[in-house]
UniProtKB/TrEMBL annotation:
Gene Ontology molecular function: any one: electron transfer activity
Protein's name according to its UniProt entry: Cytochrome-c peroxidase
Pfam hit, one: CCP_MauG
First-listed, main subcellular location of the protein, grouped into a coarse class: other
Alphabetized InterPro entries for the sequence: Cyt_c-like_dom, Cyt_c-like_dom_sf, Cytochrome_c_Peroxidase/MauG, Di-haem_cyt_c_peroxidsae
Cytochrome c domain ranges (all copies): 110-234
Cell compartment(s), UniProt: Cell envelope
GO cellular component assignments: cell envelope
Matches recorded under Gene3D superfamilies: Cytochrome c-like domain (1.10.760.10)
Organism this protein belongs to: Pseudopedobacter saltans
Transmembrane segments: none
Keywords (A to Z) from UniProt: Heme, Iron, Metal-binding, Oxidoreductase, Peroxidase
Length: 258
């Protein structure tokens, strides 16, 4: 019965990131799982309990021996195993990727092309290709008073209040809800924010201010074209990759829950 305050970031293309979590509070992928494992609103566990449970499991000791050469289970090995799994999660085979590689299946429709042109003209300051994020920290005008101070929690720099890491837009149609607090349930609502709902504040990112006016002059049709383009970033081969499914040789009736 515990509700967190932040939207969960997607786990893909992490090998190209130097900092993790929406506030950048973790700077090494091996440490990235710790917050979820220990947080009271997520798995609410502790490292000693996790190690003890894995040691008692019938299958994990032999799996650790296969991976590390010894069946001794340690916190360091657990973190390395998790990070090696996460670093495999590479998404780079969407329709957009095929379009850029001039491959079969990558032909854009006229509306997708128009949406792409709109995107390049207005969105790439933050969502740089090909990762569709520059992984910087920015205030995108959701609030003027912050219930979550974002990057400031880590840096204690007043200029970082209300700043959060720019998320990747890859597979964006699958990662709803949107924004750091998940306030928008649909992609169209998130896009409309940038033309209709940006709130000015001292830390608002300057790329969202044009000639003294906040936001973009997108029409409803522009938003539709942008949404159509963003759908080309969906990588179905990634989300259906059998390597990332639950291993069939593990008995999940006796599965270890940390």
């Amino acid at each position: 019965n515990c509700l967190g305050v932040r939207n969960a970031p997607p786990l893909m293309n992490l090998a190209w990131q130097k900092e993790f979590m929406l506030d950048g509070g973790i700077n090494h992928l091996d440490k990235a799982p710790l917050r979820a494992l220990l947080d009271t609103c997520e798995m609410d566990s502790n490292l000693d309990t996790i190690v003890a449970r894995l040691k008692k499991d019938k299958q994990y000791p032999s799996m650790f021996k296969s991976a590390f050469g010894s069946d001794k289970i340690t916190t360091q090995k657990i973190m390395k195993a998790l990070s090696q799994y996460m670093v495999m999660l590479i998404s780079a085979n969407s329709k957009y990727d095929k379009y850029m590689r001039h491959e079969v299946g990558g032909e854009f429709t006229p509306m997708e092309k128009e949406g792409y042109e709109l995107f390049k003209a207005n969105c790439t300051s933050c969502h740089k290709e090909p990762l569709f994020s520059d992984y910087s920290y920015r205030n995108n005008g959701l609030d003027s008073v912050f219930s979550d101070d974002g990057r400031y929690i880590i840096t204690k720099n007043a200029k970082d209040k209300g700043l959060f890491k720019v998320p990747t837009l890859r597979n964006i149609t699958l990662t709803y809800p949107y924004m750091h607090d998940g306030r928008y349930p649909m992609l169209y609502h998130a896009l409309a924010h940038y033309s209709k709902k940006i709130i000015n504040s001292p830390n608002l990112d300057p790329v969202l201010i044009h000639n003294g006016k906040v936001g973009f002059d997108f029409t409803d049709y522009d938003l539709m074209k942008l949404e159509v383009f963003l759908k080309t970033l969906t990588d179905t081969s990634f989300v259906k990759d059998k390597r990332f499914e639950k291993p069939k040789d593990i008995n999940y009736k006796n599965q270890v829950y940390f």
